[in-house]
Amino acid sequence: MTEIKGEKLKMVRNRDFVQKRYYRVFRQDGGASVSCPSSKEWSFQRKAAEHFKAMCEVETPIVFPKEKITFTRTNRNVTAAYSPADIEAEFDVNGKFYTVINNVCPDYGILLEKGLSGIRDEINLQIEDINKKEENFLKEKDFHKEEDFLVSCLITIQAVEELAERYRREAERIGNTYVGNLLRTVPMEPAGSFAQALQAVRFLSSMFYLAGNYQLGFGRIDQYLIPFYREDIARGNLTPKEAEELVGEFFIALNKDTDLYFGVQQGDNGQSMMLGGVKPDGTDGINELTYLFLKVSEKLRLIDPKINLRIDSNTPKELLLLGCKLTKAGLGFPQYSNDEVVIPALVKAGYCLEDARNYTVAACWEFIIPGKGLDIVNQGAVSFPYAVGEVLKSPELASMDEARMEKIIRKNIDWQVKNILENRNQFLLPSPLVSLFFHGTISARRDVTRCAKYRNRGIHGAGSANAADALYLIRSMIRQGKQKELFHLKEAVDKNFEGFEVERNYLKNEIPKVGNAQEQVDQGLHDIFNWFADACEHYSDKKCRIRPGTGSAQFYIWLTNRMNDWIIEPVVGATIDGRKAGEPLPSSLAPSQGVKVNGLLSVLQSFSVIDYSRIMNGGPITVEFSPAALSTQEGLEKLADILRCFVKMGNQQLQLNVLDYRVLCDAMKHPERHSNLIVRVWGWSGYFCELAPEFQRQVMNRHRYDL
Q1: Cα distances (Å, whole numbers) of residue 232 to 190, 224, 229, 238
Q2: Dihedral of alpha carbons 225, 228, 230, 232, sign
Q3: Which of 24, 250, 372, 388 is buried deepest, with most CB atoms within 10 A?
Q4: Orientation angle between helical segments 44-57 and 194-210, nearest 10 degrees
Q5: This model's pTM is above 0.90
Q6: CB neighbour class for 229 (10 Å; exposed up to 12, middle 13-18, buried from 19)
Q7: Cα torsion for 453, 455, 456, 460, to the nearest 10°?
Q8: Strands 546-548, 306-311: parallel, antiparallel or unpaired by DSSP?
Q9: Which helix (H) or strand (E) segment is 625 a member of?
C-alpha cells in the first residue's frame, strides 16, 4: 500500500510540474533569428532542409535529472522556411494559397522499425542508383530534381542526429544516464525497447514543429507500440507498473508544449492519438496499451494527449467503462468514432479497405490515413443557416413552394462550396522531414506533396441544427399555405427581433427543434447534409474528392461574427428559428443553444438520420454532462450503455464533456483560481481561462445532460 501511494505521489509531483508551467522559464527567442535561406543556388527543398537545420541548431537541450522521456522545446517561435518570393518563384500562385503541411498523420512505425540511419541507408542507395544512370542516360533524363530531394532529406536527418546527440550529452552531463542511454539508440537506430520507442516518438513529434509542420497527430499509437511492450514484458525487461510509469512520463513530456502551438487557441496543438479499432486485416486491434493509455490519462488529467477511441458493437464493456471514467475526469475526451460507420464511408469515398480500416484522425476529428493521406481536411465551412436564410430573401416568398425553397438552399450551398474551393484554393508546401515518414517517397524520389496516395480535400458543415430548425418552420408554413405570414417573421429577423420578443419566444420555445427525435424536424438534417454531399460530389473528380463533414471547428463562432480576416464564408445574422445575430452556433452536431430537448438518447436519435455514408470528413455529436450525472458507478454504467446505443443507431462520432456551470462562472470572475480547468472547445481540449471570451461564453451556454 505504501508503494502504491509513493508511485501515485511521484506521478502527481511530475504532473504538477507541467500544470504550474515551470517549463516556460526555458523559453527563448533564438528561433526568431532564423531567417529564410537566401542562397539562390539552393532549391526549394534544400532551403527547407537548411532552415530546419538552423532551427535545430538554436535549440538548447533541456534535460531534467529524473525524467525518463525527454524533450523540452526552448524556442517560442518557428520562422518560415520559405519567403513569399520563394513560393512565387517555385509555384503558380495565381488564385492559389500555399501553406505548410499540417493536419495529417505520419507513420511513426517507419521510424521505430528503421531508425533514421536505416532511412538514410535507403536514401544513399537511391543516390547511388541515380549516379549510375546519369553516366549512361544523362542526355535522356535529368535526375537533378530527384537527387536534390534526396540530399535535402539527408541534411534533415543529419540535423536531427546532431540535436539528439546534444541532448544525449546534456543528459549525461547532469547525470541522467537513463535518458542518455535511450538517446544512444533512438531516434537514429531502430527502437529496441518500449522506452526507446516512446522516446523516439516524442523526439520526432517535436522535430515536426521545428520544421514548421504543425498539428501532426500520433495516429494509432497502441498499434505501433504494442510489439515493443509485449517483447519487453515477455523478456522480463519491463513490468506493467514500469510501463505505466513510462507512459506517464511520455504524457508529461507532451504537456511541456501546450503553450507552443500554431492553432487558433492555446492548447490547439494537434497532440492527439487514436486507440482501439480493427487492424488493417480486419481483426481486433484492442490490446494492453489501449487500456493502459486510457488509465494513465485518467490518473494524470492533463490536456495532452487528446485521446480518440474507435469502438464498434463488439467493444468490451470494460473498455467502454474505462473511457467513461476518463470522461468523468472532465478532460473532454476520449472522442469516440464508430468503426461500423466510418470504415464503409471511407471505402465508398475511394479509400482501399485495408487503409480505411487503418484510419486515424488528424488534429481534431477529420479521418486520415497514417503515412498515406495528405488530405487537406480543413479547407473551410459551409454556413447552413445562411443557406436556409436565403429563402427569406427571395422576391417570390409570397408564392414560395417546397421545390423552389429547396432549389434556393441547394444553389446557395453549392455556391458556398465553390467559393471555398476557388478562394481558399490551398496547396501544401514540400517538407523533406514529413516526407521521410510517408510511404513511397524515398523510392519515388519525390516529396510527399507530389506522391502521397490520398490527396483529397475536406469542408466542414456548420450550424446544422439551427438550419434544420429553420427549414422545418419554413417548410411547415409553406405546406400550410402561410407564406404571407413568413413576411412578418422575415421582418422580425431583419430587425434582429427588436420589438418582436413575443415572436422570438414562440419561435425558440414552441416550435419543434432538432434533438427531440421528431421525424419531420430531423428530416431537415438529412436533407441539408445530402444537399451538401451533392455539392461536394459536383466538384469532385478521380484525383481529388471533396469530402463533406459534420464538424464545424472554429467556424461555429466565426460564422456568426467576422472575427478573423481569413474568413471568406458569409456571416449569418439573426435566423428564423429565434437565434439573434452574434449568438454562436452549436459546436459541430448538437441542438441549437438554448432550446428544449428531451434528453441525450433523443439527441442521438435526431442526428442518426444523417446519411453518414456520404459524409466522411468527420465531425462529432458534442455532449456535455453535469458532474452529478457521472458521480456514481450507476451513472458510468448508463453512459457505457449509451455508447452502445450510439453505435447501434449508426452515428459517426461522439465527444463528451463534463461541465459544472458554477465552476465556469467562478472561473470567469476569478481565473487565477482555475488555471487548470479543462473544457472541450471543438475537436480539442484546452484550459478554459486561456480561451477567448467568445468561446468561453459558447461553452457555458451548451446543453448539459443528466442520465
Answers
A1: 15, 14, 5, 5
A2: negative
A3: 388
A4: 120
A5: yes
A6: buried
A7: 120
A8: unpaired
A9: strand 621-625
